[in-house]
Amino acid sequence: MDTYNILASFAQTGGLLIFVFGFALVLAYALMPSNRSTFDKAARTPIEED
Asked: What InterPro entries does this protein map onto (predicted)?
């Protein structure tokens, strides 16, 4: 196997793992109960503003 294929394979696998890990972190942050009031307030903002 040449160097290009090794690096390309590593980049694809590593990129997928980083993306999945980052997505899981964002999802966990969005679903944390302690953030509920912040997100509820942000959701009501367009309705409450004049």
From this structure: Cbb3-typ_cyt_oxidase_comp (IPR008621)
